[in-house]
Write a sequence for this structure.
């Protein structure tokens, strides 16, 4: 009996020593990555409280996971499982790159991507994700040719899918992105030529995937191509075909009303007869009375009425939105703002309706205080007085707006709406010609949004204001040098460095 | 013994991915949970179900016999009979004990299955409907287990076979309804929070570490030891009291 037990034990040990079974290894890889991700997500809740050393340790941990699971075991013969484990390893590398990117170590990010391309280039999905990340880096750095090459390599290798789970889901957008980059690269000299490949790709998808969601997506992209080329009639034709296709589908990926709404959008962009656009918009309400975009359609009709100088009609549609979509925190306050603008526009009315407009603007911040419309309203009031030539009232309104914005900013935690409020504060300060404070606030906001295009544009705008309005070249060049440091691998950073040199040179 | 086995199974399941255990652990995990549960963290999502399934086998094959042995020891402690050769006697009665365990598990499983067939209407999605259904299910479980509570004692202490044991257990429960319901119901209610927690793995996975499921299951095993001792002791006492009263 004892001998048998010993033999069984020996057999188990032999099996285990002959090589790790890949299922167990995959489980451990998933566990290690999942646990690290959990910790990473916790740190990301309040990133400002996390020390750089902690981020570094986090990056090391992800790199360690990637290293541990990147190579297949010698004894394995299961290719699929090995690929799965390597994909987990690649995900760990990606997150490590993400952490380094947040730390501003773009050199290490590039190194990781290069290493990943060597280690995981054979996995289509991972290859696509690496190429996408490298393409985005190249694009940000202004290397459009390299970005185009990388994006094209994804298109050539990864078939498109309708999914958000992996890189296949973004393949459909890449030909259009390449076309736009080509246009930038050539300075917009021959748009038709730049969009030719994208057009051919989407036409191919429309042909190859009849009745599928991919066909619908490709049809939408073809419309975008036509719009970019300002081939308006063709764009509308494509949208009409798309709407008919969606109506025939059992479970359409988009509601047909959205396509009809896009037709109205194209008509507006093409500056076609506003009456034609109005009819198109009204047809949406008639044919799709319960569609989800009803508030947007009503708003578009109202704006169309303003264009046709039919102020009463516009007011009636804005009233309808305010009444029927009171729960919609976007549509209702925006309609109130627009309503106030129309009421305040003197050209529309025989008698002055400014008091009504003023009430309307004030009502927004009472009914919908934490919305963009509520934050825009104080500036609308100041603007009205400025246009009317009442500089005292305008200044008083701006002064109140500044106080309101500062109070709003201290009351709420940092986030999109607070950044929006800070941008309005900068606007108010600029209108009061308090450029000194406006520049300081812009730099602060730029730093808080560091690493984003919006952050860069605030820093550049601050430098411009310091140079033009304050005539302070030292301050302008300091801000530009700072911008070049924050965005050193990006085109804007290189431009800022050159501009700082130029300003300092001209000052000598 | 049963708890030791439960702990061993739990250890085997949660360590299935380790190289020395993998040859045994992986097939077991696949058998109890299917192919997908070999992924993390889905493994922990399925762990309570896998453990529950393993427990069914343990309950039928081992706990039924161990319960009989415990009844013999308790009976001796209460001054009835002899505990010599308790394991031998229980093993000899194992066909009846296992058959009774299968019937008990079968009925409880049938009740669960029937409850899953109730249409998912708005009422049952609401708190009142959901908790009402849970209470009805608990009540049914307690009633079924109460009527079959004395079967083990009949087999182990008196030497009854399968059908007479069931028949006489139902008869005793009918005569001792309230004490039996209390003896079975209180431990069931005591264990309910833990079994509810292990059943809400979705909340645990969303808000806590999935590994906490192991702690919950270990806690469940420990509580079950205490509850089982009290339960077998109480049922044996009631059984002896009723049997002696009818003499």
């Amino acid at each position: 009996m004892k001998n048998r037990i010993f033999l069984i034990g020996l057999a188990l040990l032999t099996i285990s020593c002959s090589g790790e079974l890949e299922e167990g290894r995959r489980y451990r890889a998933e566990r290690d990555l999942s646990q690290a991700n959990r910790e990473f997500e916790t740190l990301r809740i309040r990133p400002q409280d996390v020390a750089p050393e902690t981020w570094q340790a986090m990056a090391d941990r992800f790199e360690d996971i990637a290293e541990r699971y990147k190579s297949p075991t010698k004894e394995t013969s299961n290719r699929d499982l090995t690929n799965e484990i390597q994909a987990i390893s690649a995900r760990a590398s990606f997150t490590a790159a993400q952490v380094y990117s947040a730390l501003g170590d773009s050199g290490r990010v590039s190194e990781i991507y290069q290493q990943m391309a060597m280690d995981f280039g054979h996995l289509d999905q991972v290859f696509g994700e690496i190429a996408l990340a490298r393409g985005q880096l190249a694009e940000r750095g202004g290397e459009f040719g390299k970005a185009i090459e990388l994006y094209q390599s994804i298109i050539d290798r990864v078939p498109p899918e309708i999914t958000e789970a992996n890189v296949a889901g973004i393949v459909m957008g890449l030909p259009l992105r390449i076309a736009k980059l080509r246009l930038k690269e050539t300075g917009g000299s021959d748009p038709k030529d730049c969009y030719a490949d994208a057009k051919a790709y989407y036409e191919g998808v429309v042909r190859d995937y009849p009745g599928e969601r991919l066909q619908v997506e490709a049809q939408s992209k073809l419309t975008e191509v036509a719009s970019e080329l300002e081939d308006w009639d063709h764009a509308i034709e494509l949208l009409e075909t798309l709407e008919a296709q969606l109506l025939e589908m059992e479970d359409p990926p988009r509601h047909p009303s959205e396509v009809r709404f896009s037709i109205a959008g194209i008509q507006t962009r093409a500056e076609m007869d506003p009456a034609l656009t109005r009819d198109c918009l009204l047809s949406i309400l008639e044919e799709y009375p319960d569609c989800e975009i009803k508030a947007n359609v009503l708003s578009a009709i109202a704006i169309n009425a303003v264009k046709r100088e039919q102020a009463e009609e516009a007011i009636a549609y804005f009233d309808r939105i305010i009444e029927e979509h009171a729960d919609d925190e976007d549509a209702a306050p925006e309609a109130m703002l627009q309503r106030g603008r129309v009421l305040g526009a003197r050209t529309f009315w025989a008698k002055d309706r400014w008091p009504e407009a003023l009430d309307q603007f004030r009502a927004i911040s009472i009914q919908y205080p934490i919305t963009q419309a509520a934050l825009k309203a104080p500036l609308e009031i100041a603007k009205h007085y400025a246009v009317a030539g009442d500089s005292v009232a305008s200044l008083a309104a701006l002064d109140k707006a500044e106080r309101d914005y500062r109070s709003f900013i201290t009351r709420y935690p940092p986030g999109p709406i607070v950044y929006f409020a800070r941008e309005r504060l900068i606007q108010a300060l600029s209108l009061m010609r308090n450029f000194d404070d406006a520049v300081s606030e812009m730099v602060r906001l730029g730093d808080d949004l560091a690493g984003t295009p919006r952050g860069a544009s605030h820093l550049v705008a601050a430098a411009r204001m310091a140079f033009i309005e304050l005539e302070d070249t030292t301050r302008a060049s300091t801000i530009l040098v700072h911008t070049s440091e924050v965005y050193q691998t990006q085109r804007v950073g290189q431009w800022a460095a050159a501009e700082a040199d130029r300003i300092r040179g001209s000052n000598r | 013994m049963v708890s030791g086995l439960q702990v061993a199974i739990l250890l085997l399941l949660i360590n299935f991915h380790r190289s020395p255990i993998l040859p045994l652990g992986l097939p077991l995990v696949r058998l109890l949970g299917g192919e997908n549960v070999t992924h993390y963290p889905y493994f922990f999502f399925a762990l309570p179900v896998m453990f529950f399934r393993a427990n069914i086998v343990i309950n039928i094959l081992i706990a039924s016999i161990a319960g009989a042995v415990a009844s013999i020891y308790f009976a001796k402690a209460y001054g009835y009979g002899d505990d010599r050769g308790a394991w031998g006697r229980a093993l000899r009665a194992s066909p009846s004990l296992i058959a009774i365990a299968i019937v008990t598990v079968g009925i409880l499983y049938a009740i669960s299955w029937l409850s899953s067939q109730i249409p998912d209407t708005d009422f049952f999605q609401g708190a009142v409907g959901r908790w009402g259904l849970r209470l009805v299910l608990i009540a049914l479980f307690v009633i079924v287990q109460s009527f079959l509570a004395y079967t083990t004692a009949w087999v182990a202490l008196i030497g009854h076979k399968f059908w007479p044991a069931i028949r006489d257990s139902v008869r005793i429960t009918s005569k001792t309804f309230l004490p039996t319901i209390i003896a079975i119901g209180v431990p069931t209610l005591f264990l309910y929070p833990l079994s509810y927690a292990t059943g809400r793995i979705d909340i645990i996975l969303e808000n806590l570490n999935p590994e906490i499921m192991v702690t919950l299951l270990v806690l469940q095993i420990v509580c079950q030891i205490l509850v089982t001792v009290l339960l077998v002791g109480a049922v044996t006492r009631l059984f002896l009291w009723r049997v002696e009263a009818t003499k």
Notes: Residues 310 and 348 of chain A are 8 Å apart (CA to CA). Residues 22-45 of chain A form the longest helix (24 residues). DSSP finds 24 helices and no strands in chain A. Confidence is low (pLDDT under 50) at residues 16-20 of chain A.
